[in-house]
User: What shape does this take?
Amino acid sequence: MTIQEMILTLQKHWSDQNCILMQAYDVEKGAGTMSPMTLLRSLGPEPWNVAYVEPSRRPADGRYGQNPNRLYQHHQFQVIMKPSPENIQELYLDSLKALGIDPLQHDIRFVEDNWENPTLGAAGLGWEVWLDGMEITQFTYFQQIGGLEANPVAVEITYGIERLASYIQDKENVFDLEWTHGVTVGDIFYQPEYEHSTYTFEESDTDMLFNLFSTYEQEAKRIMEKGLVFPAYDYVLKCSHTFNLLDAKGVISVTERTGYIGRVRNLARAIAKAYVEERERLGFPMLKGEAVTDENN
Amino acid sequence: MKTTNVLFEIGLEEMPARFLNDAQKQLEQKTRDWLTELRIPFEKIKTYVTPRRLAVVITEVAEKQHDIEEEAKGPAKKIALDEEGNWSKAAIGFTKGQGKNVEDIYFKELKGIEYAYVNKFIEGKQTKELLPAFKDVILSLTFPKNMRWSNHNLRFVRPIRWMVALNEHEIIPFEITGVPTNNESQGHRFLGEPIEISSPSTYVDQLKQQYVIVDSDERKDLILQGIKALEGRQNWKVVVDQDLLDEVSHLVEFPTVFSGAFSEEFLSVPEEALITSMKEHQRYFPVRTQDGELLPNFVAVRNGDDHHLETVSKGNEKVLKARLSDARFFYEEDQKHSIEENVNKLEKMVFQEKLGTIADKVRRTITITKKLCSLLQLDEQTTKNAVRAAEISKFDLVTNMVNEFTELQGIMGEKYAILFGENQQVAKAINEHYMPRHAGGELPETVAGSVVSIADKLDTIVGCLSVGIIPSGSQDPYALRRQALGILQIINNQAWDVNVDELFATTLEVYQHTDIETSDLKEVAESIKEFFTLRASYILKDQQVDQDVRDAVLASGIGNVAFTIAKAKQLMEKRHDSSFKPTQEALVRVLNIAAKGEDTGIDPQLFENKQEQELFDTFQTVNTTYQKCLNNHLADEALQQLTTLTSPIHEFFEHTMVMTENDNLKTNRLSLLNQIADIIYAFADLTKIQWKQQQ
Assistant: This one.
């Protein structure tokens, strides 16, 4: 099964579970979680079911295209369901079956893994899912986002597309994976991998990046005060990516690091709060008259 | 009485393996407490845990609670009856409240006053009616981490997906987060099917048919059998770590053991790194030859049966290969950076906000190491080794390998130090300075390693306590308790003649030459002393010294660890030795009476009788030898010297009135007793001991 077919299969599977199929968000980010389709929409009482592929940039993981497992940019398939369905584990395992992974022929396990993203003031409990010892999915029940308590709780399922494909296609090197018939990951991504690594570790203009960080930060603050939540959040994402570039280049010392993370976190918190307030002002339109919580346990 | 068997099973999404041992204990205890409180007799409680279930089977549960009969106390007689002898409103109210009539009242005296009483009989309820309250037992279970899910407000370890609750064949009704109890359980996630449990007694077997081994001991046995079989077939020795076995057995419901291999070329990486990769990341058991050599193989456990085991093994091999490639990459990469380069990077690594960087810490550790070396009068070469080891003690913290596998700190330091041409002693000391790595862990062997280990720990403890980081309850983020204990164990292990109290002072002094803002020095010194005394007490406990004797020998400080232990052991023996009784009585009497005054100087002219003179003379002779014994840490001989005082003391008390009317005589006698008391205290505060001699 090619990567393209895998994506189509997962889209079909989660579409059948009434997930909204979204496209990748057009601002650089380190993980699918950071898309506003997850981070903001998981907040508040409105139901939200969504699935999308997210290209995720991790500048520090760039290896000039030389490492068989590490990439500057990989792909995640992201699913969010809020509130988390009672049979979510079964739905997930069915998706693996759809990908041709028969649980009876493999060893599939849910191994404790608690997820935390201090930059986003977010935390959750769950597992990494192991397929014959390999982590293929991160499975998380959000408990807190942007410093706010998640209620109702959204469940996040993040498949590592390349990881999973290397298993399904039985390839040792990520660049040998078939994206579609006759076209490999290497064909498409080798050059950008090499160039982004060169840029990140050698060519990036440190002064410019520090300036950008401050500029983005100020802009985020400025427009958030005007209640423009989504544009402000875009600038937070830009801050985060700029920070990652600086961090990868090793120009942020340990003490400074905490400071920068704190600055991004403060922004994320403020935006999370503003988002919920804005939705509330709009009367939580996606609730469509449904009860928020239905139970007292 | 008729009895039934009862089963509760809570089905959950996979719980963290590390929680299960404790969860099982809690389930047992809380079920027991619950039934006891409800006065429901039963035969036995058996608990089961798997990643997906917590279950308890209670056998021979009585069908009814015990009845109880109790006395209810009412108003005093004079209030219960009015002047004409009629029942008062108070009496009527009391009986009503108890569901009784005034005819049931009888009087009984309590502390000289007569009160009205009625006998109350409470009939036991049907157990059946009480069982649904097991819900509260479930909800009372506590876990290190809880979560919420969906739109429920409950916080629990993981989402509850099904519940079985059976009183024999009957479902015990209750629900949690909308999940009702039922008689349907779930089998193994992939191999099994949903199954109707016919009765509590068939629970274990019925689930076994659905590929779930609910008894974790049985799962462990199966894993061990599987490992044994492999060992026999391959002539291997599989290293079974109990913690790992525990964890693995809690990750599966139906274990099948399998093995895999990795390329021999990875054996060039230090085996500690390979083993950590296998154990910590993948939960594999490493494999050795009969001679103990590491082999390029591993043993793992699958949650399933043996179908397609080759696929599972191949997949695992692939993952391990990627992991080991990383480890090898790190190992090679690390060798490109010199020790000095790494040491420089420590300037940027924060140790603790108020205590500066790791580089700052290392500088203090070097100073303390030097002071220790001269205090211990170590030879030049050992001193040189210790100081060098201190200088580079933390360089491996910035290597890729330690970054990836934190638990290899020190271990990689030793390997890399040798590769970079440091001498064996220095390299070993780097590794040893982290010892003991856990409670009861190995201690440093070399002198240099012991010194640096103590210096590093002293710096951490004194530093933390100085800036107000004081461990409390389960909060001890810098493992100060373990480190303090470690210092004392190392001193004892090396049989060093150091007074521990001196070490604190030395370290505190080092801190005074830094710009770190410490709390009030006197208070800090006091808290350090208190902190260490508790650890010393722990060491004594470990040597089978009882609490009272521990308090007695630690009353005047920790002193020399080995000597303190020796003194405590002497006293542990003597407190049961009837021939010591006269001595103990004499010495304790001195201590008790001495406490009534103080030493203002002895004037032999004021002695009235020969017993006073004789005690004074014996004391002076004894004291010279006694002090020598103390200086040479000879516990038994020191005590022997004190024993010599026995008869003079008894004679003294026999013929002398200490607390006499004559103030001069009194003061003089108290002074004599105080001087003797002082030398007794130097051994131990004998008044703290509960003597147990038979007579």
